[in-house]
Amino acid sequence: MEWQAFECVEEWRLPFVPDSGHGAPTQLVDACGAVGRDLYCRKHGSEEHIERSEWTIALMETGDCHVGLEPALHHRTPALEQFRGFSFGALHIDDTLAEATVVVADSVQGELAGYYPFIQWPIQEKRLLLPVVRDGTAVWRDPRTDLTVAEIGLLTD
After folding, report:
1. Which 3 state secondary structure label does DSSP give 26?
2. Which of 136, 59, 132, 135 is nearest to 149 (CA)?
3. Burial class, 81, CB count within 10 angstroms (exposed 0-12 / middle 13-18 / buried 19+)
4. What end-to-end distance do the CA atoms of the chain give, in Å?
5. What predicted TM-score, i.e. pTM, was given to this entire model?
6. CA atoms within 13 A on the CB side of 124
7. CB neighbours of 52 closer than 8 A, spacing ≥ 6?
């Protein structure tokens, strides 16, 4: 089996809570914005200021997309000196907003909890909430009660 490399068609850098637009696929920008808004609350762990990061979105010629969360170039401060950022795939230009939001939330949650800075997010009591699509909407679900806690992007403390 031969491995094939695909070209990056376009790449964007976005603020931590971006508005729609910026030329990137709208549903991906909105997914990053929703997750960014929720990252301000219900965190447990390191005091790293993840909100001083920015999103990167890369569109490949296949329609696949790679998303990253990296320290912002203009925020290279001691508050982020240990956070190296991360990126992930599993997204496609044809994903719905709800699908893209759940993939972004799940990937960010896994990276933050599984690697430095070891932040458990978002939590309900001592449990991690799970990102799922319910009735066409991306929501945070409590795994113990199976109840919807909030729509992703509208989480509060």
Report:
1. helix
2. 132
3. exposed
4. 50
5. 0.91
6. 16
7. 16, 71, 72, 75, 77, 79, 80
Residue with tokens 């989480």: 155
Task: Provide the residue type at 97 as one letter.
Answer: L
Each residue of 17-44: pLDDT tens digit? 998 767 899 999 999 999 999 999 999 9
- CA 137/CA 124 separation, integer angstroms: 20
d(CA 57, CA 44): 27
Order of strands across the sheet with 137-141? 130-134, 137-141, 148-151
Tokens of 9: 């068609």
Q: Which residues are registered as beta bridge partners of 87?
A: 68
